[in-house]
Design a protein that fits this description.
The complex is a heterodimer of chains A (673) and B (174). Helices cover 63% and strands 11% of the residues of chain A. By secondary structure, chain A is of the alpha+beta class. Chain A has four domains: 161 residues, Four Helix Bundle (Hemerythrin (Met), subunit A); 283 residues, no CATH class; 98 residues; 101 residues. In chain A, the strands form two sheets. In chain A, strands 2, 3, 4, 5, 6 and 7 form a six-stranded antiparallel beta sheet that branches. With 174 residues, chain B is an alpha/beta fold. Chain B has one domain: Glutaredoxin (3-Layer(aba) Sandwich). In chain B, the strands form two sheets. In chain B, strands 5-4-3-6-7 form a five-stranded mixed beta sheet. In chain B, strands 1-2 form a two-stranded antiparallel ribbon. The N and C termini of chain B lie far apart (67 Å). The chains are: A alpha+beta (673), B alpha/beta (174). Chains A and B meet through helix 4, helix 11, helix 12 and helix 13 of A and helix 1 and helix 3 of B.
Chain lengths: 673, 174
């Protein structure tokens, strides 16, 4: 009964989504107020029904209803309750239901926080989101219904993939999806702008916070995924350039470009068609990511459920959504205008250069991800593209981008002077070079690549200091704290996010440069030395979990002969699926992680044990968190809280449309597209 | 106008590759065991644990080895087909009960029908390792000389039976 109710709620949600995707858009085009006014209530109704559908699915999982196919395949009566709830989005069907549910949640948020927007605009934005929703609900109902029955019912379910039975994995997909789906708002704003032909600074101001929030979720989602891979897969790595990881990283790269391009459109009225194109690209890549993961065109450790029929549906959906929006772009973008002009050396040109570098990086990652598919399509053999390609392409592209990241915030809008910039930054440059050259000696060994990585990180940090100091000198009277308090949140948010990048680079550089790893055979009572620590193996003993049997190793960690802690890595075998899992033990520290994993058992209680010493590895994820906090700080900036009364004034002042770009080479009229 | 069409053009090329890619099966790396003698095993029967079956006993006839488990939901998709195939008597089907529990496996067979001449048990998955099993179900066609001639990854379907497995069996038997 409950699954049928869920199915019925899903059908009602589809009908509401169809209404939402048609009437408000037509109403906005023809000027029919009652149709325009329909947008908000329909969005909220759709949300209610999707919430019911999702609730029904979660209910079936919690109550072990193995007459539902989805539950029988992805759950088990021995599965602890928190993972039974998480299993509702652990499967293909469930994760898509979560996708549309989040889309409707974002739509509701837009309908609530858009009181200060013109009604036609809201109607178009919500209408576009409704059309996306139609596609996904249809996909669910036609090819991947989460409520399909399995009759006669199974006695027992086949269990959730043990890899997913982990707290990190419970929140990783929702975060990632919030990011993916969040870009649909930026996309909807862009399409609305193309439909209406109006695109000014106010438009950029409206869509900016939504984009930033989506970017924050995506950042956190990717961070959690990377962290999960680190402590769950037992290989000690944190990024594998796996197709599914790339699928989440592509929208992030383009989203990062979009966040910056929107800043220019808001402040200077430039980059308009470029911004629109980026918004379309960011969401298109989110959709493409879904396609790659769910259709089985690429092999990946992550692709849990694949089916060609689903692939055909998503591909058709991609063609309709992305194809029609790019067609709309080609038709309407020339009318959007070029925007304000700027010089070869200016903040705009640096942001544009960074945008291009990010897009080229995204393009190379996309090429690397799809290359095996392209080769296979052309019958040139089955190959796989690994980390060496991605690292060889990605690092050289990001190096100038990081350099410009330090320079940009200090450059003036419109026209900056290179000699003046060099003068202002000579100390920052000198200090970062000297520190970067000396730091590796403290770590024990000088390595050119480590010095180089640190140079980029210290350059970013030093330029942040210079920027803040100069800003304070120019902000009038008062003590240090009065001056600090006078700066806007958006100013700090930018530096915080950039500082996060620096922290991230330090983590990556030092862990790559100085990590040590040993695969050793350990008898009971034997020891191994690493990074100034002694690991003593006291044997492994059997333990039982709720739905698995495990061997738990007991390893004492000693420093200077003193015991500092006991580490207990496990080797688990899950009852239902018989899958074996390695559960490493990690001692997390500010400056290093100790990481111990059990390999294979040998005779006489001896084991193969893998021991890692990973300096600064946690800085990688801490850096991502700082970026995310930067984003959160940015959306709390006070100008987003000032509403209606200021809106008209600002649109008038930044009406750059009318200024003709005299230097078409540098203006962004889509030339780089 | 034309330069604004460039993104669309790039997208169309991409779609072309994705469409072709959909019909490819990146997972189906051809099994290295095809054309090689089937790995030899000897194991207990599921129904009669005191009796053993050795794979050499099947020399001289064409047979199917079907890897199955009670915990495997996809096995249920192919199961009715296997039951029908067994009834037709075209080819004997031997089951390899993979990483399963005896009582659950017996219960499963009594509920859905038993197409197997006999099933041997592989509770630890050791035989599975020899055969390179990486997902359940999998089905192997083994000829009179004990050589693996075909491997079906995933459930047997009507299409795969009619197009590949049955003609191959006919050829091998003839």
């Amino acid at each position: 009964m409950i699954p049928e109710l869920g199915n019925f709620a899903l059908i009602l949600a589809l009908l509401l989504a169809i209404t939402q995707g048609t009437l408000p858009i037509i109403g906005a085009a023809r000027g029919i107020p009652s149709w325009i006014a329909l947008a908000r209530p329909v969005v909220q109704g759709q949300f209610v029904f999707l919430a019911i559908a999702f609730g029904c699915l979660a209910y079936s999982f919690v109550n072990n209803d193995f007459s539902v196919m989805n539950v029988a395949r992805n759950s088990n009566s021995e599965l602890p309750i928190q993972y039974r709830i998480a299993a509702s989005w652990g499967s293909h069907e469930g994760s898509l239901l979560l996708w549309v549910f989040m889309l409707s949640a974002w739509s509701v948020a837009v309908s609530v926080f858009s009181r200060h927007l013109p009604d036609e605009m809201v109607a178009r934005v919500l209408g576009v989101m409704g059309l996306v929703s139609v596609g996904f609900i249809l996909f669910l109902l036609v090819t991947s219904n989460p409520f399909d029955r399995l009759l006669p019912a199974a006695f027992e379910g086949s269990d959730l993939n043990p890899l997913l039975q982990d707290p990190g994995m419970v929140i990783h997909p929702p975060m990632l999806y919030m990011g993916y789906v969040g870009f649909s708002v930026a996309f909807a704003f862009a399409i609305a702008a193309l439909l209406s032909g109006e695109m000014d600074a106010a438009w950029a101001r409206w869509s900016r916070p939504w984009t930033t929030v989506a970017w924050v979720f995506l950042t956190i989602g990717i961070m959690l995924g990377s962290w999960w891979a680190y402590y769950e897969l037992g290989w000690g790595g944190w990024w594998f350039w796996d197709p599914v990881e790339n699928a989440s990283f592509l929208p992030w790269l383009v989203g990062t470009a979009l966040v910056h391009s929107l800043a220019v459109t808001e402040k200077r009225g430039s980059f308009k068609s470029w911004t629109v194109l980026l918004a379309i690209c960011a969401f298109s890549l989110s959709l493409l990511g879904t396609f790659l993961v769910r259709s089985g065109v690429l092999t990946s450790v992550h692709a849990f459920a694949t089916d060609p029929a689903r692939g055909v549906f998503i591909l058709a959906f991609l063609v309709i959504v992305i194809g029609s929006s790019l067609l709309l772009f080609a038709w309407r973008a020339p009318k959007v205008g070029l925007g304000g002009k700027f010089d070869l050396v200016s903040r705009e040109s640096m942001l544009l250069a960074n945008n291009l570098l990010l897009m080229v990086a995204a393009g190379s990652v996309l090429l690397g991800t799809l290359y095996p598919l392209i080769m296979d399509s052309l019958d040139l053999g089955k190959i796989s593209v690994g980390p060496p390609y991605f690292e060889a392409v990605f690092v050289p592209l990001m190096t100038p981008a990081i350099f410009l990241m330090g320079l940009g915030p200090l450059a003036r809008w419109k026209q900056a002077s290179l000699p003046e910039l060099m003068l202002r930054l000579r100390w920052a440059f000198g200090v970062s070079v000297v520190t970067a050259l000396l730091m590796p000696f403290i770590m024990g060994e000088w390595k050119p690549l480590v010095s180089f990585g640190l140079l980029l990180a210290f350059w970013v940090i030093a330029t942040i200091f210079v920027s803040i100091r100069q800003r304070l000198n120019n902000s009038g009277q008062g003590g240090l704290f009065t001056k600090l308090a006078r700066q806007s949140r958006s100013y700090y948010s930018m530096h915080l996010a950039h500082f996060g990048i620096a922290v991230f680079i330090i983590g990556v550089t030092l862990v790559n440069g100085y990590e040590t790893e040993k695969d050793v055979r350990m008898e009971i009572g034997s020891t191994v030395e690493m990074g100034g620590y002694t690991f003593r193996f006291n044997g492994a003993s059997p333990v039982s979990g709720p739905n698995y049997q495990a061997m738990r190793g007991d390893i004492e960690v000693l420093r200077n002969g003193e015991k500092i802690r006991v580490m207990q890595p496990e080797k688990r075998t899950y009852n239902a699926s018989g899958m074996a899992m390695t559960e490493p033990a990690i001692d997390t520290g500010f400056l290093r992680d100790l990481y111990v994993a059990l390999g294979e058992p040998l005779e006489d209680g001896a084991w193969v044990v893998r021991v890692y010493h990973k300096p600064f590895v946690d800085w990688i994820w801490f850096g991502c968190l700082l970026m995310a906090f930067g984003g959160i700080l940015a959306v709390t900036d006070r100008r987003y809280r000032l509403k209606v009364h200021t809106k008209h004034v600002e649109t008038a002042t930044v009406a750059d449309d009318k200024r003709v770009a005299s230097n078409p080479r540098l203006s962004t009229g889509g030339k780089k597209a | 106008m034309t330069r604004f069409l460039l993104p669309l053009a790039a997208f169309i090329v991409l779609v072309g590759f994705l469409a072709v890619g959909l019909n490819l099966k990146p997972r189906e790396v051809p099994s290295p065991l095809i054309g090689k003698p089937a790995p030899v095993f000897q194991s207990q029967l599921l129904h009669e644990p005191e009796r053993m079956l050795a794979s050499q006993d099947n020399l001289g006839k064409v047979w199917l080895l079907n890897v199955w488990a009670s915990w495997c939901v996809s096995c249920r998709e192919e199961h009715p087909l296997l039951v029908e195939l067994a009834k037709s008597g075209i080819v004997p089907i031997y089951g390899l009960n993979y990483k399963d529990k005896r009582d659950l496996a017996l219960q499963w067979l009594s509920q859905y029908g038993d197409p197997y001449t006999v099933s041997v048990v592989d509770p630890e998955g050791r035989i599975g390792i020899d055969y390179g099993v990486y997902g359940v179900p999998e089905t192997y066609v083994i000829d009179k000389n004990g050589v693996i001639r075909h491997k079906q990854i995933g459930p047997v379907t009507i299409e795969s039976l009619e197009k590949k497995i049955l003609p191959l069996i006919k050829e091998l038997q003839g």
